[in-house]
Amino acid sequence: MSRAVSLPPATAARLDALRRGDLAGIRELRLPGGPEGRLIEMPPEILGLADTLELLDLGHNDLTALPADLGRLRRLRVLFGSGNRFARLPPVLGDCPALSQVGFRGCGLAEVPADSLPPALRWLTLTDNRIAALPPALGERPLLQKLMLAGNRLRELPESLGGAQALELLRIAANRFEALPGCLTALPRLAWLSWAGNPFEDRAAPPPVAVTAAAWRDLALGPLLGEGASGRVMRAAWRQDGAGEARAVALKLFKGAMTSDGLPEREMAACLVAGAHPHLIGGLGRLADHPDGTQGLLMPLLPEGWRVLAGPPSLESCSRDVYDPALRLTARAALRLAHGVASGAAHLHARGFGHGDLYAHNILWDGTQGDAVLSDLGAASALLPGAEGHVLQRLDVRAFGLLLEELHTIAPLAHPALDALARACTGPDPAARPGMAEVREALDAIMKESGPA
After folding, report:
1. Cβ atoms within 10 Å, residue 328
2. Which of 57, 290, 323, 329 is positioned for an S-S bond with 80, CB 3.0–4.6 A?
């Protein structure tokens, strides 16, 4: 019997039901720990669900190992073990034939044995651990599509990772890389990469900008607008220098913790360098004197009614956004939206940063005409000079090409030049893709040819 002093009420109720046999045949089981108590071993009754269980969440407990016969869960596809106390990624994970998504964030992991990598691995999250090396076997998982490694002690990636031809999203921010890993240039589908907070990124030199300091006393806080991994966003009225008419702004108060993309302070730095642009949510100023020392960023406030273009990736879609099935755009609105996003990304590149997370779920739009802004610089990283910077920019270009393909599914975009642009943006050789400024100019031409709405 698994032991714990006590458990959160919902977890305790599910565990009791599991032991009574009431959960026979279920496909998902969540037994997270909490302030009330944590499991210190996996309940053995879980193995009785071998014929049906597909998702198991044991996050935020005090587990240090998993049972040797975990492979009996032959249908298990998703396992969350984040917030436990594993010194090494459990080798028994490799015995689970269907396991494709593994999440062990913030566990204190120092070792990743080759045996711990399931053959069907598609999505691996090892954010915020103590990992200094990864096994060559990581590049031998042909389905690997999403790899989250921010906040570790890595100095290099296995060269074999260059063979992970399906890899699309990679997070290596806040590690110890002295140089950009060379294997990344061999990944034809890589589109979303964060690399901020490494020694090699520290040597990049975006142009200096003057930063406005916003005093706490000059802000009147309004309602909460949203909350994410890196901070809380509130509406605020800003009376700059305590004088004149107050300006409505959005204030992001950072939590100061490691996110899956990287470090919040890097996000703030990128926003401030990006500055103001009609199609990019950059920074207006830095909060100067929060009474608790909290870092804050002032950003433009969008009009009422603006919304995200799509939802973030699901467990099933892995690295692709999820659109509302009922969403439809006119061709003109879709072109305006694409042009705006390309303009915002081109501006960011000109300021010396890659976006790293150019996704529909980070695009806010007016819901009708196609007016749009690119948001969320949590994965933004300083571009390197020369050929490496050229390749890094073209990762955002591939992400934009995928966005064009998605827009084809929700808008009547039958235009040969647009199809050719999408193919150019998503080509397998990053160096052969156009720059984002070229993409914007191509969209200019297409919109002029298409005429008014």
Report:
1. 12
2. 57
Task: Give CA–CA dist 23/33, Å, rounded.
Answer: 19
Model pTM greater than 0.90?
yes
**pLDDT, one tens digit for every residue, the chain (453 residues):** 444 458 999 999 999 999 999 999 999 999 999 999 999 999 999 999 999 999 999 999 999 999 999 999 999 999 999 999 999 999 999 999 999 999 999 999 999 999 999 999 999 999 999 999 999 999 999 999 999 999 999 999 999 999 999 999 999 999 999 999 999 988 999 999 999 999 999 888 777 788 899 999 999 999 999 887 788 999 999 998 877 889 999 999 988 788 889 888 889 999 999 998 999 999 999 999 899 989 999 999 999 999 999 999 999 999 999 999 999 999 999 999 999 999 999 999 999 999 999 999 999 999 999 999 999 999 999 999 999 999 999 999 999 999 999 999 999 998 899 999 999 999 999 999 999 999 999 999 999 987 765
**Cβ atoms of residues 88 and 65 within 8 Å:** no
**Do residues 440 and 343 lie in contact, with contact meaning Cβ atoms separated by under 8 Å?**
yes
- Distance between CA atoms of 393 and 242, rounded to whole angstroms? 40
